[in-house]
Amino acid sequence: MEMEGANQQLLQAEQQAVADSQQPPSLLLQQQQPLVLGGLGSRRKCWPETSRAPSAGGVSPLSTSGGCGGAATSSEKCFKAGQESRMVSAAGYPAKLLSQLNLLRLCSDYCDLTLSAGGVQFPVHKNVLVASSDYFRAAFSSGMREAGASCLELKGVTAEGLQAVLEFVYTGSLALSVDRAEDILNTASHLQISEAVQLCIRFLQLALSLDNCVELLNLSELYCLDEFGSNVRTFLLENFEDLCRCGALQRLTAAQLSDLLGDNRLRVAGEYLVFFAVVQWLEHEPDSRLPAVGDLIDQVRLPLLSGEHLVEKVSCIGFMRDVPACSDRLTEAKDYHLVVNKQPVMQTPRTRVRNHQRSVVMCHAENLEAFNLATKRHAFLKDCAVPLYNPCICELANFLYACGGRYDGNEASEMASARCFRYDPRFDAWHELVPMNEARKDFALVATGNSCLMAIGGQDENMVMCTVERLCIATGEWRFLPSLQHAVYCHAAAVCDSRVFVSGGQRYDGYCDSLICYEPDSELWASRAAMLNKRGNHIMECVGSRLFVLGGNVEDIYGFPVPVTPIESYNSIADQWTLLRCSITIREAGSCVLDSRIYIAGGLDGENYYSHSLQVYDTQKDEVQLVERFPTRIYGRVCCLMTLPQGL
Smallest Cα–Cα separation from 615: which of 582, 581, 645? Predict the structure, then answer.
């Protein structure tokens, strides 16, 4: 009877094991009841292996090798199914283990090493330190004398910092404050515990303010925290004016201040505030800081100050007269304002507009508009004193040149203009230049090198032109160059590899597919491989060493425009055109290039309506995307890329 009772109990246990195997792993973890296996004479308790999940067939994957021992009996076969096992875990076990280890540390139980810092001793477990610190792993595994030491004194760390880092090692948590952060960061860096270092950096990033930004910049430099230092530096650049007002600027070193002043991202309302910041910094400790003032003034963009500021507010400062380096920079700035026409060829790092963002500038409908590609901000710039009607524009040395176009706003008028103007974004001002030798519209205007403009072809009233003329910025004079082989208008031109290419356009006998090249050295025009499609009123831009032609139109037998949609690219080395997969329907649009992308502003769409869109063609992906939809329609082939002051 006793044997029968045991067998009955065994059968019930097996049935219960099968039922348990059909439950979720989380339930198996909660029902850890011992199973009684074997006969009366060999009754054994065997705990289920919770690390192995039940199989899909409902048979428990328990193995007799883990706790039951011996050969499997017939009653144990249900636990030896050959199903694939799954790993299950107790979610709170790692935290419990850490907590128990920390409790052992606090009670000094089983500790086999004592760390000492600042006269304070900390009992610890050597294996825990090796597992968490690269410093200790190297010290205890390289045969160094520290490997067998029972007490180790740490130099260069404080007791408070070591205590906080040890708490992190045993708990994963840090008690941080701005006052304690440097000690803890120093200890974590010294012991090479990267997780603790990252926690400190994240905390300091959140605590960054005007009160502590200079000290945190010093901290990032001391511990070579490049990414954190870059974030602090960005904060200083964006809050520079507040930095000056609260007095934190005085705590910067000369090298740190010079680095900030030389950055295009420095956010200031005007360059005079930059100059005043240098004066303010110098006056804090004039004797010790005077030797560094020359390097600092070299970072101030004095030519961007108005002539009035230079004379009335800068020249009267003592060190600007007495320190030779400062005096030279002041003279340079004054000379820059004296020769207005030559300013584009007098560009230096000190004449650059202080901004790192680029804007698409559009000159249309007598207006000058700008769209910031980074902030998506749309703005109107100062209008020219003389209305401009569909001029040709181009950019040279971050100046906008607008030449020619229609003589007046009468759409029926065929008269062209020869007047030329230059827009300077540094002062949001226009300046009129010497006019072209011939009035022209529907022509091409390109900048060659850093010192010349070329006006190519076009028309005036009933005359189609083949003449070409060049403006030398240094002399301010236009002179004729060798003419084109054919008179043409509504063509496109671009500079690529220092050569000027002219494509398509309309001649007396209709639209053409020609491509010609001007060699500056020989001053000769040469024919190249013709485009795959005839077109005019199109876009041509150079990206890298390739030309891209987009949009345009031809005319049907009735004189109505027919869009040309294929996009082509030209390899100047192979003298070969390639038809690309993408296409676009646009004509008489403005364009400019940034990196590998061609921005297309306005123009006439497929339905002969002026577009109010800014599109971009990615030459690497061969696709067109919409960038922005403006509230007004943009017309005219008048678009360029410029860097504008932050206030515009």
Answer: 582
Which of 431, 237, 369 has the alpha carbon at shortest distance from 648? 369
pLDDT value of residue 73: 54
Q: What is the largest CA-CA distance in the chain?
A: 126
Query: Given 167, 191, 207, which residue is the final one in a domain?
Result: 207
Counting the structural domains of the chain, the total is 4
In a domain, 506, yes or no: yes
pLDDT at 25: 41
**pLDDT at residue 82, rounded to an integer:** 54
Angle at Cα 588 formed by Cα 587 and Cα 592, nearest 5°?
100
Mean pLDDT (whole number) for 311-325: 94
Secondary structure letter of residue 532 according to DSSP: S
Going from the C-alpha of 43 to that of each of 35, 361, 525, the distances in angstroms are: 10, 91, 105
CA–CA dist 334, 152 (Å, integer): 66
Residue 222 lies in a domain: no
Neighbours of 285 (CB within 10 A): 10
Q: What 3-state DSSP class applies to 61?
A: coil
Nearest partner of 599 among 621, 570, 585, 619, judged by Cα:
619
Same domain, 48 and 150: no
The pTM of the full predicted model, rounded to 2 decimals, is: 0.79
The CATH number that applies at residue 289 is 1.25.40.420
